[in-house]
């Protein structure tokens, strides 16, 4: 489960230096604003490779993948997360798996523990300033709009069974993207299949053991104070 994320990129964009992701993160995405409480259906930064030009892009997408056949942007069922175990079978996700894969570079995220009504949020961060998460994207077109207008880029974050630090917080965690597999994942010429998804999912386990977390106050509003230990 991943339903709230933090996006606070370094001013000089050296957050991913020395990694495969650095090629995509040469600058902040257009319209960038730092946020410490980004929710599904808001705009989420994603890294992708353009199908036609091969250009590496870092841009914003609507956080909830909308399949091309949907008649409206809002889906009936939540699609801000996609289970890695079934993503190659589900109608909404199986086509994006083949060649519309992306990485969501966040600074951190939240998970909740405790009984209903008294749940405690935990801020979670990785060993580096950016945590790359495996994702999928889709272009949704407004019915009735012209060919050159009404297009919306939408995306979802893959999840898997929890491991490492996440095991004590929730039974699901994001699929953290390993540097070794990032190039293949972002290459649209690499056809996505069950083997690729499983490899990316398994590579997330060692990363989960390097996470840092601490409880924070209930999330209200938006600002850096949200990640201060409670």
TrEMBL record:
Q: What biological processes does GO assign it?
A: protein-DNA covalent cross-linking repair; proteolysis
Q: Name one Pfam family in it.
A: SRAP
EC number(s) recorded for this UniProt protein: 3.4.-.-
Q: Which Gene3D superfamilies match?
A: SOS response associated peptidase-like
Keyword field = Covalent protein-DNA linkage, DNA damage, DNA-binding, Hydrolase, Lyase, Protease
State the InterPro entries in the record: SRAP, SRAP-like
Q: What molecular function does GO assign, one term?
A: single-stranded DNA binding
* Similarity comment: Belongs to the SOS response-associated peptidase family.
Protein's UniProt name: Abasic site processing protein
What organism does the record attribute this protein to? Leucobacter tardus
